[in-house]
Design goal:
This protein is of the alpha/beta class. Helix content is 37%, strand content 30%. Helix 2 runs antiparallel to helix 3 and helix 3 runs antiparallel to helix 4.
């Protein structure tokens, strides 16, 4: 229910942003609000509206550290207008590369300071950067692993009680995630990888009683799947 409410709120927020963007473009074209006098052409207004929408989306998604990136973009888009407003004549206030590098450092630094968490449909498990244990019977209904510049090993307990139709989402940015799964499960992995590495071992052809759908979103990180026969339930205790 909470996820559904978040989707509705996000849709409403984007709708409001798009409407405001359209109104601003019309007012600018009619010279009612001549933004072009302040160095704000139509493309800057559109880009600004888009970045505002992304900022709202990040806040609704409860990932505040990412907010530094669209805020840096907004500053770069409106830097000329800000410069004119403070009497600098439209000159650059801060070098572009400084803004970009500072935003990335603030983002990564904040992610490292905030305790990492593993969120599932059944609760939140804090990640100490060593090992995470998921209950295959309950947690794999809709489990999420989110890692930023860290290291995590994910194990499955209660493998015998796994219903067989679970879903796991793995988000990794500049980190290393290793996921240990039973070789008896059929693994379906959907990858979105940018400058990283995702290793999925080849499984023999044939029929499998149980399967797991995995969505991987990796940026400059490493995600490895290890298929084994050992049940780590004893280690979890």
């Amino acid at each position: 229910m909470e996820k559904g409410k978040r989707v509705v709120s996000s849709s409403i927020a984007w709708g409001i942003v798009l409407i405001i963007g359209a109104v601003l473009l019309i007012l600018n074209a009619l010279d009612v609000l001549p933004f072009s006098q302040y160095g704000l052409g139509p493309w800057k207004l559109c880009l600004g509206a888009l970045l505002v929408g992304i900022s709202i989306q990040i806040l609704l998604g409860r990932k505040p550290a990412l907010l530094f990136l669209p805020l840096a973009g907004l500053f770069l888009v409106f830097e000329e207008a800000i410069s004119n407003a403070v009497g600098k004549g439209g000159e650059n206030l801060i070098p572009t590369w400084v803004v970009i590098v500072a935003a990335v450092l603030l983002w990564l630094g904040t992610e490292m300071v905030i305790p990492k968490r593993l969120s599932t449909a059944h609760g939140i498990f804090h990640n100490g950067g060593i090992s995470l244990y998921l209950d295959a019977e309950k947690d794999l209904q809709d489990a999420h692993v989110h890692d930023i510049a860290g290291s995590a090993s994910v194990y499955m307990t209660n493998q015998d009680l796994y219903p067989g139709n679970g879903r796991l989402t793995v988000e990794d940015i500049a980190g290393k995630v290793t996921i240990y799964l039973p070789a008896q499960w059929r693994l379906f992995v959907h990858c979105s990888d940018v400058a990283g590495r995702v290793h999925v071992p080849k499984q023999p052809e044939g029929e499998y009683e149980k399967s797991l759908q995995v969505e991987v979103r990796d940026v400059a990180g490493s995600v490895d799947f290890v298929l084994e026969n050992q049940n780590p339930e004893q280690e979890a205790e």
